[in-house]
Amino acid sequence: MSDGANCLVCGAPAAVVADIPYPFVRQSDFTNVKPSGRVAACGSCSSIFHCVEPEDVQRIEAQFADETYARSEQTGQTVPVDSGGRAATRSALQADILAGCVRQAPRAILDIGCYDGELLVELERRFSTAGLHGFDASAQMARHFPDRAPFRFWSPRLDAVPGPFNLICISHTLMYVHDLPALAREINRLLAPEGLLFLQMPDIAANPLSLLMGDQYLYFTADSLCSTLARFGLTVTALENPWFPREIVAIGKRGSHPDAPATDAVEILRRSISLLAGKAWNLRGLPARTPLSVLGTTFSAAFVDNVASAPVVRFVDENPAREGTVFRAKPVVHPRALADDDVLVVPYGPSGAKIQERFARQYPVRTVVV
Fold first, then answer.
1. 207 near 147, Cβ under 8 Å?
2. From CA 198, how far away is CA 346, in angstroms rounded?
3. Distance (Å, whole) CA 317 – CA 174
4. How far apart are CA 91 and CA 69, in angstroms?
5. Which of 20, 45, 163, 305 could form a disulfide with 10 if both were Cys (CB 3.0 to 4.6 A apart)?
6. DSSP label of 103
7. C-alpha distances out from residue 300 to 252, 313, 348, 349, Å
8. Is residue 36 in a domain?
9. Burial of 289 per CB tally in 10 Å (0-12, 13-18, 19+)
10. CA distances from 164 to 105, 109, 193 (A)
């Protein structure tokens, strides 16, 4: 680890900068964007950030105008919700979480980074009288957004959106924001005094592989998120939930936090990189001539494809919509297509143990959890 970068959030010199020797990938299609990268921790505001070069910024900002982003089907992912393999979309589960948090039906909801508006569609089913507004940096998402009342799409300037909103959702968006202070000002402007802020994003403490997202500016744990947003007058509380064990799910509101957690961003970064190295070591220890199947079609699966010593021949997804498609130029199959002599890598750390147990009951395949 070395020094030599300024914090993207507060501008202070980084406390530590780490060189990460694994390929970085992009969210829209999980292809590699650079062979390695640098990530830093700020000792002043507790932020953890990607040390971006000008070409990184250009690539990250340009991706939202790319047709690949519009076709990436980010809201199509499903999540198993019981031991029988029943699944629900991420948007439906997020809406269920919010329905349990909101005391009074919101009159107006804004989803920042709304993509195709699927979360708002789910929220309409639970809050039928709300005005539903979606903002996305990509103006081309307007053609995928619901074209009916009470929906309204906004792009490309958030400062053109009028408030206030009783509920603002920012799901898997905060990491892509280059100017977090500017976004925080907009949140404070748009959020009603008693309104709620819903946040969801990868948790590098639970899944250090998210450090390798090469199109992100920022990385978070639950504590670092609370510490960073407290700097902007936003109180954030992480929620326990059974569906997203490797992600931060949190509720926020306007106002200072009297008990904002003290966060050692340097230690968080060191620990996450150590876990990342351990995963790479385990993957490189697999028999080099054993063809591998990999569970998943996101960045965890991409990491296995990049690092494993053995060849990855296919990816596996329980979502029927993914069956017969291609991920990283390799076929995607349903787990029922696997044979008992296939080796299936489950790259989800401790949470992969439950998947392993369920697969042992449902499918004839040998699994390896990393």
1. no
2. 29
3. 27
4. 18
5. 45
6. S
7. 28, 16, 7, 10
8. no
9. exposed
10. 15, 9, 9
- Cis peptide, bond prior to residue 156, ω within 30 of zero: yes
101-119 exposure pattern, b = at least 16 Cβ within 10 A, e = fewer: ebeeebebbbbbbbbbbbb
Element (H or E) spanning 168, and its range?
strand 165-171
Per-residue pLDDT in tens (0 to 9) along the chain, 370 residues: 445 799 999 999 999 999 999 999 998 889 999 999 999 999 888 899 999 999 999 988 888 776 667 666 666 677 777 666 678 899 999 999 999 999 889 999 999 999 999 999 999 999 999 999 999 998 889 989 999 999 999 999 999 999 899 999 999 999 999 999 999 999 999 999 999 999 999 999 988 999 999 999 999 999 999 989 998 999 999 999 889 988 999 999 998 765 656 678 899 999 999 999 999 999 999 888 899 999 999 889 999 999 999 999 999 998 888 899 999 999 999 999 999 899 999 999 888 898 899 898 888 899 999 9
Q: Identify whether residues 219 and 341 lie together within a single domain.
A: no
φ, ψ of residue 49 to 5 degrees: the values are: -145, 155
* Same domain for 321 and 239: no
CA distances from 227 to 152, 224, 251, 298 (A): 33, 5, 14, 28
Q: What is the DSSP letter of 6?
A: B
Q: Which domain holds residue 142?
A: 69-256
207 and 311 together in one domain: no
d(CA 203, CA 181): 21
Q: Are 145 and 168 in contact (CB under 8 A)?
A: no
Whole-model pTM: value is 0.88
Please check whether residues 240 and 297 belong to one and the same domain. no
Please tell me the total count of domains within the chain: 2
List the helix and strand counts (H, then E) for the chain. 9, 21
CATH of the domain at 206: 3.40.50.150
pLDDT at 258: 58
